[in-house]
Structure formats: C-alpha cells, structure tokens
Amino acid sequence: GAGVSQSPSNKVTEKGKDVELRCDPISGHTALYWYRQRLGQGLEFLIYFQGNSAPDKSGLPSDRFSAERTGESVSTLTIQRTQQEDSAVYLCASSLEGQSMGAFFGQGTRLTVV
Amino acid sequence: TQLLEQSPQFLSIQEGENLTVYCNSSSVFSSLQWYRQEPGEGPVLLVTVVTGGEVKKLKRLTFQFGDARKDSSLHITAAQPGDTGLYLCAGRNSGNTPLVFGKGTRLSVIA
C-alpha cells in the first residue's frame, strides 16, 4: 500500500486477555516504531526496529509487552494479560534509514480494555 | 531516553494572530522534527532541521533549530482555523537511535 497500515483500527478486550496489533509499514522502509498515545497526551516510545540490528526495547513499559518484526515487513505488538491502564491508541510508524528521514504514521489502533 | 519539553501545553488564539511554540532539551540532538496531529489521525511530518541555527519556512510556518541543537521553535504567522491541532516535536541523538517525542502543544485557532 501507499502508506502505513494498522489493524484493527479499534479493539475492545476484556481485562486479562491477550491482544495482538498489526502494522504494515511502507515498502522499503527499514525503520519501524511503535508508540502509545493516551487520551490528550503525547507519544510514548515503545520499541524501535532498524534493519537487521537488535530492536531497541527500552520503551516497553512491562514484560507483558512484546513486539516482533518479520524482516523489513510486517510487525506485531502483543500485550499479554491486558490491564485497564493499557487503554490507549497504539501508533506505528516507518521511515527510511538516516537521521533526517521523517516518520510516516498509520492511523493507529484504539485499544479499550474493559 | 532524551527528554523534550514543549511549551506552552495549550494555546487558544484568534484567527490572524501570530504565535510561537517551543521545544527544549538539556541534550543535543542530531536532528529535530516537527509534526502536526489532528484528531483520529497519526502525526504528519512538517519539517526536519539538522544544522544548528537552521531556519526553514513552510508557507506561514517558520521553524528554527537552536545554535547548540538543544532547542527549536515553531512560529506561525496569521494563524488560521485550519492550523488547529497538536504540534509535536521529535528528535534523534544519532542516526540509529529511536525518534522520541515531546508531549506536544495543543493549538486552537478560533475564527
């Protein structure tokens, strides 16, 4: 596709359930980011994939959060045993390599834990 | 993680007024970007600045990167209701580090 695609766009889950969020980056983009955005807040960095390098997981808030990326393609963010405080919009972005490269964002997945 | 502080947090102005929002850090960034986000959408890149002291203009928007590459400002001239949104600054401290964001300035331009 032409842009970053995220699915599902909305997800409602019960507390304690596991959820999996998907991101399809722009073809050819070597860098991929996941961010969390709580209502009315800025973007909280979660994890960063860059080519074949080990991912930077320094932003993951707990061991319930994990992410994988298949080569330079699709990425999935998994949240195990969801809690109400996990409710937020999860945004994925991709970019070309290089410090001046802008990040292109998907529209996000709105996760609600009830 | 490098910390970016944005101010003001909220700004409400009348159409036609000028405004400046700020992005500050105690750390040096190799590059800094400004994004605008509208409700229900992901952020959209406005500009990237790389060189200390650099000034870039995008129509009514003027972006400046501080000489020491620790701060940046966004100035909007003659604001329009269409400028309403969340303005986010983001920076990297090297080419292979994650892009970290400030908490944003929420701008409302009233007609």
Brief rundown of the structure:
In chain A, 0% of the residues lie in helices and 46% in strands.
Radius of gyration of chain B: 13 Å
Oligomer: heterodimer
Strand tally of chain B, please? 11
Summing up helix and strand content along with how strands pair, one would put the structural category of chain B as mainly beta
Backbone CA Rg of chain A:
13 Å
Quick tags:
heterodimer; A: 114 residues; six-stranded mixed β-sheet; four-stranded antiparallel β-sheet; 10 strands; 0% helix; globular; B: 111 residues; mainly beta; 11 strands
Can you lay out the helices and strands and say which pair or pack?
The complex is a heterodimer of chains A (114) and B (111).
Chain A: E1 5-7, E2 10-13, E3 19-24, E4 31-37, E5 44-50, E6 65-69, E7 75-79, E8 88-95, E9 104-105, E10 109-113
Parallel strand pairs in A: 2-10
Antiparallel strand pairs in A: 1-3, 3-7, 4-5, 4-8, 6-7, 8-9, 8-10
Chain B: E1 5-7, E2 10-14, E3 19-24, E4 31-37, E5 44-49, E6 55-58, E7 61-65, E8 71-76, E9 85-92, E10 100-101, E11 105-110
How would you characterize the overall build of this protein?
The complex is a heterodimer of chains A (114) and B (111). Chain A is an all-beta fold. In chain A, 0% of the residues lie in helices and 46% in strands. Chain A has no helices and ten strands. In chain A, strands 2, 4, 5, 8, 9 and 10 form a six-stranded mixed beta sheet that branches. A four-stranded antiparallel beta sheet of chain A has the order 1-3-7-6, with no helix packed on it. In chain A, a hairpin with a 5-residue loop joins strand 6 and strand 7. The N and C termini of chain A lie far apart (33 Å). The mean pLDDT of chain A is 93. Chain B is mainly beta and 111 residues long. Chain B is built from no helices and eleven strands. Chain B has strands at 5-7, 10-14, 19-24, 31-37, 44-49, 55-58, 61-65, 71-76, 85-92, 100-101, 105-110. In chain B, strands 2, 4, 5, 9, 10 and 11 form a six-stranded mixed beta sheet that branches. Chain B has a five-stranded antiparallel beta sheet with strand order 1-3-8-7-6, with no helix packed on it. Chain B is globular. Classes of the chains: A mainly beta (114), B mainly beta (111). Chains A and B meet through strand 5, strand 8 and strand 9 of A and strand 5, strand 9 and strand 10 of B.
